[in-house]
Give the backbone structure.
Amino acid sequence: MTESAYRILMVDDSEDDYLLTADLLEYTRQARFALTWASSFEAGLQSLTGHPFDAILVDFRMGPRSGFDFLSAAQAQGTEAPCIFLTGQQGHEIEMAALRQGAEDFLPKKDLSPSLLERTLLHAIERRRLLTEVSRSEARFRALFEESRIGMVILSRDGKAREMNGEAARLLPPLPTDRQADVGDLFPRDAEAARQAFASLGSTGAHSLNLRLDRTPEEWAQVTYCPVGSDERSRALDAPVVMIVRDVTREVILTRERDLLATFPRENPHPVLRIDIHGFCDYANRSANELLREWGIGQGLPTPSPLTLAAREVFEDGHARDIERTVGGRVFAFTLAPIKRFDRIYVYGRDITEQRQAVNRLRRAALVFDNTDDGVMITDGQGIIRTVNASFTRITGYSHDEAVGRTPAILKSERHDNDFYALLWGGLTEKGAWEGELWNRRKSGEIYLQHSRIRAVYDDGGGVSEFVSTFSDITGARMRAEELERRAYNDPLTGLPNRHLFHDRLGMAISRSNRSGNSFALMYLDLDGFKGVNDRGGHLAGDQTLQWVADRIAQSVRAEDTLARLGGDEFAVIVEAPADRAVVKGLTDRVHTHFVDGVPVGDVRFPVTVSIGVAFYPSDAQNRHDLVHRADAAMYCAKQQGKRTTCYAADCPDATE
């Protein structure tokens, strides 16, 4: 029995048939099945939406609809689960029609048994799985075949061309439409050589040779025949042969030019020396004179010992050899090629100083890559991570091996929505670059903020070959900036908005009121008896009193209101619109209630109360300056009336001045 159940959807308008099928599946022996019942055509289609099933059992007749209708609709929805028809009818024509429609099988209900139902379901599920795997495998091969930059031709075992990919079609003549072409037809200039090489596959396996292309007389291709299986069984099954065609015109021409240089070294722009078996130089072309001067030798004299030793080794094994030497601050690559019949060696030199400098630059770049404090991540054009540096591991917690082969989604924090990533990819697509801040998640699960710079790297065809992302962890810097901003706009003792932030919020409240037409209130609060706290308890007691007062006023106001400390023992509250005297009175009453028994500081209670002045916008004032002035004047009016009370600007004559 399998560890998990196969998921089966049954679409049948008969509950009795569903219960019978469920009972039959209970008695299966090899597998376990989880059966979901849909009692109608529409319910069955809805069940397929977002719920994968391993197989579907469909009643052949469901009222006015048939199983054919359901299968067509399910296929249109994109379901890949195999479908098996259940029916009370029988007949070869119906069964064939079901199979042609795409059903996996056709079962009469009267013949159902646990073993038959189990076997049919398992065969259908396994067959669909195998077909899916084959389809995917064929799709991968087809994509590789069609998109490859290497020419490929599929040949039969008798050398007939079946098909060729785009690169092969670019290099070779088109396949004739009236007959099958063989390998000789593809290389008209060397037809016999192509056929002979193909014929030798039976004894030698894969075979490579250079053949002339038919486009121009000086174009060459390296042709490799690769049999798919070389045993007798593969040949008996007519397994194909893949012919790989690669344009090697440049390589052939370079080889020919090298041969010409060996014959006519005098005009070679590169240094050419000829030395004998003892290391003596008996010829040097014009380009080699500078080397000879640097070495302090001339023709007829022995070459430097490294060159002499290399020459002896070439004479001994008869194979060409490459060595590098620095001469006069320049780096040269020397190729020593033996000429056996003359007991001589040609030494061909190439100045590779710039090449070596380029290599050194790459090494320095690699050193920077490995040691920079910024994290570096390089992906391919599809976003698969190719490599990361040590700082990436330090910042994210993912090692090189853990990151390579995966996508940057391993760092996703879920703090950004789809619109954010759409803008990011839009920038990369349009400009080839994006820079900004990203919230990401470390391997440990910790969220952090990084500043990222992403650049696209393009290949010769203009397509994106890589994305290079550099980033730094700015979480600490952001926290420090937020702390500085908090200190700039918040009172350090109480944590409330300070005078600067208060005026900013007041301006926004006025703007909102002007747009909505609703009034709001401004309350000015000043403590009564606060000087006595400092005199009796000292500044520490005063600070504790202010913190207690801030907490109690905050408990009294609404969440949408703004409570600020303006300095000393003065506080202000912006009572957001809509606000009237009833709203404000409820708030001020709650504030005064907190001061009935004074302010507790340690074991002492100080007789501190609060005086409150209130002004309304826009009825009491039409701008911020006047509104503050009238609320402040109303507060002083409250103090003159005996403190521990509330005065409204409209009721206080002094507040109108």
About this structure: The longest helix spans residues 114-147. The two ends are 93 Å apart (CA to CA).
